């Protein structure tokens, strides 16, 4: 039986819903607008956007030029003083109003994220739900965290496409709650449609938020270096992050730069293979397109037979396919491990990294295949890649020092604990790491030698929510740490010193 696109997620219907809820986001002929100077305007130079799900055209990014972006930044800065003077109770009321209205749109946002960035419905729903409930925690607890601290002014946000709600929208609403005006750039690889919906609701609720689209070349300098910007929150690659850190170091403005690193999972003196299987399956959420994905396994050599058996049996059962397809109109959406990667270009770069690894001497131990039954006949599959894994990755391979940001795992075999630690520290800093061992005391002691901000013992560690702090060590993070009270402190000024990874020192919280 040929599958069909589920009527509940048919894109034309979702877009019609959005137009009825937030008509101000569109021109009369249906083009998307930017939110700047307090209203939706400026279609810019529309750039067609195709869905990774099937290559279909789902809209056009309203790309702004440099001068128009300057206007947006300057107006956003002008809103800062008046908003900072608004009583905290009123700021809480407006953010709460925004959250209440966003709750009515969770289903729509989750379904839009399927088409925009290839998430399964479950992961799209989780992204917006985590954003709302996370900000709710700040609304409920802001007084104790804010105290006498004062807002910085205008906070600029440049974030990657993979978590537009639980990372970008969440940060924006907390920044506004703390008394800052806020400007954000839509990720050019996806998320601008759902972000437009949520920012329209925020603006209606009286929050001083601005949302603009544009290329990095046109907008980055404006959103980073412009003197109107008092603080920058950045989530993205290490190359761009380093350049931004260099640029900001000379102007002494506040910043939080979350960058990539090779997150590693070390396995030593271990026997709970069923437990590891559960972690391997969970670790493939969203095709490992996460800053906290574990992409390198460092395994004690004598355990390799058990590891590879567990890995093979687990990963071969993962379903990868079109997340919109069902057998009949009334069926639930499919329960997939993941759908496409973000776009064809990323899929081809994964192929390049994999082929380079093979040419330099790596040995493939798993090459998954796509199941034809999980796609429409003849549909565009250019953004889909099944899981792959390599062992004996040589140091001359590009993948050895790089996070692939997709479904490619590498396995490194070691004979001594010193080798284990050295291989786990290969990227000079990471956001998360984990050690699996039957000897938990040994694992806890050895974990202190791994340069990861968060370490799991016999479990994965994630970014965390609400009161849980988040940051990175080494080259994976620059500037102030965030999460819990640290996010409030990062976007405000007060007597307490800011914790973070700075040029002159790394100041860590007591408990991570």
From TrEMBL:
Keyword flag Oxidoreductase: yes
Domain of life: Bacteria
Family matches, as SUPFAM superfamilies: ALDH-like
Keyword list, A-Z: Oxidoreductase
GO molecular function, one term: oxidoreductase activity, acting on the aldehyde or oxo group of donors, NAD or NADP as acceptor
Organism: Hymenobacter gelipurpurascens
Entry keyword Cytoplasm: no
Protein's name in the database: Acyl-CoA reductase
Residues of the Aldehyde dehydrogenase domain: 47-486
InterPro entries noted in UniProt: Ald_DH/histidinol_DH, Ald_DH_C, Ald_DH_N, Aldehyde_DH_dom
Pfam family, any one: Aldedh
């Amino acid at each position: 039986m040929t599958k069909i696109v589920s009527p509940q997620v048919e894109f034309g219907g979702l877009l019609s819903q959005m137009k009825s809820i937030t008509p101000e986001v569109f021109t009369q002929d249906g083009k998307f607008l930017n939110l700047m100077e307090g209203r939706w305007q400026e279609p810019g130079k529309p750039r067609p956007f195709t869905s990774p799900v099937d290559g279909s055209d789902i809209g056009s990014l309203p790309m702004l030029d440099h001068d128009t972006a300057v206007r947006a930044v300057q107006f956003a800065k002008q809103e800062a003083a008046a908003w900072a003077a608004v009583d905290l109770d009123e700021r809480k009321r407006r953010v709460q109003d925004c959250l209440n209205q966003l709750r009515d749109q969770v289903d729509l946002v989750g379904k839009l994220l399927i088409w925009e960035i290839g998430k399964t419905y479950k992961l799209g729903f989780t992204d917006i739900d985590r954003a709302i409930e996370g900000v709710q925690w700040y609304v409920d607890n802001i007084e104790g965290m804010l105290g006498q601290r004062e807002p910085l002014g205008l906070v600029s946000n440049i974030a990657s496409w993979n978590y537009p709600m639980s990372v970008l929208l969440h940060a924006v609403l907390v920044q506004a709650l703390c008394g800052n005006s806020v400007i954000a750039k839509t990720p050019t690889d996806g998320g601008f449609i759902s972000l437009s919906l949520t920012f329209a609701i925020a603006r209606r609720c009286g929050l001083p938020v601005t949302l603009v689209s544009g290329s990095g070349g046109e907008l980055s300098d404006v959103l980073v270096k412009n003197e109107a910007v008092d603080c920058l929150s950045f989530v993205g690659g290490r190359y761009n992050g380093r350049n931004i850190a260099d640029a900001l170091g000379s102007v002494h403005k506040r910043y939080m730069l979350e960058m990539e690193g090779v997150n590693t999972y070390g396995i030593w003196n271990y026997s709970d293979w069923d437990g590891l299987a559960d972690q391997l399956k969970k670790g493939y959420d969203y095709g490992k397109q996460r800053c906290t994905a574990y992409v390198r396994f460092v395994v004690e050599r004598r355990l390799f037979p058990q590891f590879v058996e567990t890995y093979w049996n687990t990963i071969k059962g993962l379903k990868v396919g079109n997340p919109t397809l069902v057998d009949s109109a009334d069926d639930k959406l499919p329960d997939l491990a993941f759908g496409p990667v973000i776009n064809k270009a990323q899929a081809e770069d994964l192929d390049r990294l994999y082929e380079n690894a093979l040419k330099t001497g790596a040995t493939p131990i798993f090459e998954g295949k796509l199941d034809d039954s999980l796609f429409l006949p003849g549909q565009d599959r250019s953004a889909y890649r099944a899981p792959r894994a390599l062992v004996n990755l040589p140091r001359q391979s590009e993948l050895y020092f790089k996070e692939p940001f997709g479904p490619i795992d590498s396995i490194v075999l070691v004979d001594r604990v010193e080798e284990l630690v050295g291989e786990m520290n290969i990227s000079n800093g990471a956001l998360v790491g984990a050690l699996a061992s039957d000897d938990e005391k040994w694992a806890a002691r050895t974990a202190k030698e791994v340069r990861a901000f968060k370490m799991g013992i016999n479990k994965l560690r994630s970014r965390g929510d609400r009161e849980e702090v988040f940051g990175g060590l080494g080259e994976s993070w620059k500037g102030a740490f965030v999460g819990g009270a640290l996010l409030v402190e990062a976007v405000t000024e007060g007597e307490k010193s800011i914790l973070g990874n700075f040029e002159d020192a790394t100041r860590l919280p007591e408990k991570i």
